[in-house]
Amino acid sequence: MEVKDEIKPLVIAYACEPGLGSEPGVGWNLVHALSRIRPVWVITHEQHRKGVEAYLAKNDDGRVHFVFYTLPRFFDWALVWPPVLNFYYYFWHIGAGRLGRKLNKEHHFSIAHHATYVRYWMPTGAARVGIPYVWGPAG
Question: What is the DSSP string of 14-30?
């Protein structure tokens, strides 16, 4: 098996923001750890833009590249009604996978990593990018 010299990861983390716990913290810590050894591209939800950009304004070393994605406004109702939040999340991953495929054509990633939210019963956008992918961490 040939080993690639350059590993170029794309992380799909619906929740990813510095200074927060739970899922946003899991996403952020994974991205931060990966960026110590490789440049990383991240697709995350638009709701994390403010926190991420505030952090990067003070700490940007050019190794993490964020792309913020949200569904069309039509789906916003699902964000405020907890029983159907998974509906929003499911469709967000479909769109993030499409966006990942588009980004892959430009950046040629070697691996996609599904970071948050990990649910064993729900598909991941990372599988739609068309390259090998990692699923997890799973709790």
Answer: SS--TT--HHHHHHHHH
DSSP labels, 52-71: HHHHHHHH--S-EEEEEE--
Strand, helix or coil for residue 111 = strand
The CA-atom distances, in angstroms, between 23 and each of 16, 41, 86 are 7, 18, 15
pLDDT tens sequence across 2-57: 545 578 999 999 999 998 888 889 999 999 999 999 999 999 999 999 999 999 99
The 3-state secondary structure of 68-80 reads: EECCCHHHHHHHC
Closest CA to 125 of 91, 84, 88, 74: 91
HSE, side-chain direction, 13 A CA sphere, residue 52 = 25
pLDDT, tens only, 92-126: 999 999 999 999 999 999 999 998 887 777 778 88
Q: How far is it, in rounded angstroms, from Cα 97 to Cα 89? A: 12
pTM for this entry? 0.89
